[in-house]
Amino acid sequence: MEQQHGALNEVNSFLDDVTQQIQYKPIRNEIRKELAAHIEDRKEEYEHYGIHGPEAWRKALAAMGDAVEVGIQLNEIRKVQKNSLSVLFVIALTVIGMIGTIRTEVSSGFYIRYTDLFYFFFGVIILLITYHFGYQFFAKNCKKILYALLSVLLLYFLFILVSVYFENYSLISFLNTSLAFALRILCIPFVVGFSYFNRKKKHLPILLTTIITAFILITSSVTFLSDYLIAANIIFIVTVYASFLYMIIKKLFGETKRYQIITYLVSLGVVITIFIISLLGDVKSEFEQFIYPERVASDYWDDAYNSILIRELLSKAEFIGPISLSEEESVNYLTGKWYFDDLSDTDIKYRMQFASENGIILEDILPLHYHNNYRVAYWILKYGWFLFFVLISIILTAYGVLFRMIQKINNNMGKIMALSCVIALSTQVIIYVLGNIGYQLGWFCTFPFISEGKCSITINMILAGLACSAYRYDKVTTEDNYNMIKGRRNKLFIGTIQPKN
Predict the structure, then answer these.
(1) Which residue spans traverse the membrane (predicted)?
(2) What is the 3-state secondary structure (H, E, C) of 66-77?
(3) Inter-CA distances, 365 with 293, 295, 326, 382, Å
(4) CB neighbours of 183 closer than 8 A, spacing ≥ 6?
């Protein structure tokens, strides 16, 4: 008995030495359990050949090798991965946004608003926090977070309906822009994650996805925000269903691929139908504003006219340097006289009051909120197409790094979540850039990390942080409650080797 106890002490000492080499402490107990199961298996093999008692334990332990060396090898396999390049690219895009904000406000003769810059710094903090803790928090609380977000979304739209009923529009204007967009974007990884966690339940994943997407689309319609939320709804649909299609292609569901594709197409058809209906009969006008804005432009306050103006100005932009306009052209662009033939003298005088004291400048001609909604177009007109190509190259490289990072993730749960985050970010970039070259889709969406604002910075930093965090913890987390010991090896060696807490 004493020899048996001594052998077990040797085993526990071996396990202590191994786990001390594991840098990421939360998985030390799991590794200890797995090694205990390995040693038990070896001990039983020796017993099968007639070696029993303490001798079987010692031989099993000797077969494992040097404890420190085993620990170092396991640490290399199960360590937290550094992902500095992806994080640095996101921060680099944020710096570009900060510089753009400062340059725009200085060029316009405004004082620098430090509240605008605050969100850039705050966003970086959010990125780093999410990068270090986001994925594990997501994996443990995905369902709860999704329910919380949907509850907030429901309460938010009920509040708007009540405000409309009582005609209290000041409260609506205070809430209906950034929050409506942000809630939709933030729901994306949790909807995808929730579907993945229920992947083994036959109809549940696609049914949940359809219901949640339909709910989000319907709430925008009944609260009269469908026009503003076109971009957000498109981003949501594209991201969620692209991620779902990836899960089908990778055979992550229990059913056959053919069956899943059929249900997927039916669900997508239902969602697209609801999306079209949610536009409240404005499908044709929204399409024309996107492709043929000249068909719907009625005055110089229209978004359609803004697209026409941007296309016209970009056609005259220089490759390097600011756009060159004559005094007559500047007057015509400022007043809208170049496009509208029926402007009265009163209209022209009204528009001329927006000219700067020292003459008409580019900032006077551009649409309102150009510093945020038309940031790319403004930089092209201010500094030339060359800067645009440099900026696009940086953006493409950044997102290329992010997609390459996703490709390296082995954990399916982490890969799906990271993929949904990066697709959501990429779709925003595409829609924003299209709007900046004269193809505006609904109201403007954000330009992740670069355009100013709470949603653009904070929410998108959470998405980027979650994606990078999934890669960071890819080797140290598992899908089923972080339990890496399956079948026979899930048994703890109770009464012999006790895993330490």
Answers:
(1) 85-102, 117-138, 145-166, 178-197, 204-222, 228-249, 261-280, 383-404, 416-435
(2) CHHHHHHHHHHH
(3) 18, 22, 13, 12
(4) 149, 152, 153, 156
- Tell me the residue type at 398: A
Q: Any idea where the domains of the chain sit in the sequence?
A: 2-79, 84-290+374-472
User: What's the whole-model pTM score?
Assistant: 0.82
pLDDT above 70 coverage of the chain, percent:
84
Give percent of the chain above pLDDT 90: 25
Overall average pLDDT of the 471-482 stretch:
69
DSSP 200-252: TSSSHHHHHHHHHHHHHHHHHHHTT-TTTTHHHHHHHHHHHHHHHHHHHHTT-
455: nearest Cα among 82, 184, 171, 263:
184
Tokens of 125: 């903090």
- Name which of 472, 77, 420 is nearest 235 in CA terms: 420
Are the C-beta atoms of 446 and 460 separated by less than 8 Å?
yes
Give the model confidence (pLDDT) of 392-422 as tens digits. Answer: 999 999 999 999 999 999 888 899 999 999 9
Provide the b/e sequence for 2-35 (b: ≥16 CB within 10 Å). Answer: eeeeebbeebbebbeebbebbeeeebbebbbbbb
For 264-276, write each residue's pLDDT tens digit: 999 999 999 988 8
Q: Give me the chain's average pLDDT, please.
A: 80
Residue, of 331 and 48, whose pLDDT is higher: 331
Spatial distance between the Cα atoms of 10 and 229, rounded to a whole number of angstroms: 65
Token pair of 50 as six digits = 């007639």
pLDDT at 17 over 80: no
Measured CA to CA, the distance from residue 99 to residue 336 in angstroms comes to: 31
CB 236 within 8 A of CB 216: yes
The count of residues in the chain is 501
More reliable by pLDDT, 129 or 303: 129
What whole-number distance in Å separates Cα of residue 7 and Cα of residue 496? Answer: 10
Q: How far is CA 137 from CA 38, 130, 178, 371, 465, in A?
A: 30, 9, 25, 36, 12
